[in-house]
Amino acid sequence: MKLIFTVLSVLLVGGLIAEAKTYKKCELVKALYNHGIQKPKLADWVCLVQWESSFSTTATHRNNDGSTDYGIFQINNKYWCDSDYEANECNVPCKSLLNDDITKAIKCAKLIYNRQGFDAWYGWQDHCKGKPLPDISDCF
């Protein structure tokens, strides 16, 4: 019985790891560009993602107020995705922001940006705003 439990545990953990994707810088640049992010803003988006999620699609962070940030853009469930809070401005389930296909996450992040700019993300405020941004010139 212990052997079966151990094998199932390894398979489950292995399955979870296989679902996680960590983007490379240029891979993210191309995905963002293909989803309508303008070239002059791409370095800001890459910097934001670097500091918010370390390029991981499965990143989550529990905040002091009890809310949770989800996915590669660390989108907060208090306002933007479906959770125990009433707001769901992006009209998406929070778990869909943890997907390797970041189409929904990009769409939601663009909505946040259009309403609040990059200042909506503390990672961008603290590490990117007014600072040297990542060089993405080798991505095109």
Structural key phrases:
6% strand, globular, 140 residues, 45% helix, three-stranded antiparallel β-sheet, 3 strands, disordered N terminus, mainly alpha
What this model shows, in words?
With 140 residues, the chain is mainly alpha-helical. The protein is built from 5 helices and 3 strands. It has helices at residues 2-19, 25-34, 39-53, 103-116, 122-127; strands at residues 60-62, 68-70, 75-76. It has a 3-stranded antiparallel β-sheet. A hairpin with a 5-residue loop joins strand 1 (60-62) and strand 2 (68-70). The longest helix is centred in the first third of the chain and has 18 residues, at 2-19. It is globular, with a radius of gyration of 17 Å. The termini are far apart.
Radius of gyration: 17 Å
Largest sheet: 3 strands, antiparallel
What oligomerization state is this entry in?
single chain
Q: Give the number of DSSP strands.
A: 3
Taking strands numbered 1, 2, ... along the chain, how are they ordered across the largest sheet? 1-2-3
Tell me the strand percentage band: 5-15%
Overall geometry comes to: globular
- Specify the structural class: mainly alpha
Portion of residues within helices: 40-55%
Uncertain runs are 1-18
Count of DSSP H/I helices: 5
Order of helices and strands: HHHEEEHH
Q: How far is the first residue's CA from the last residue's CA?
A: 54 Å
Arithmetic mean pLDDT: 89
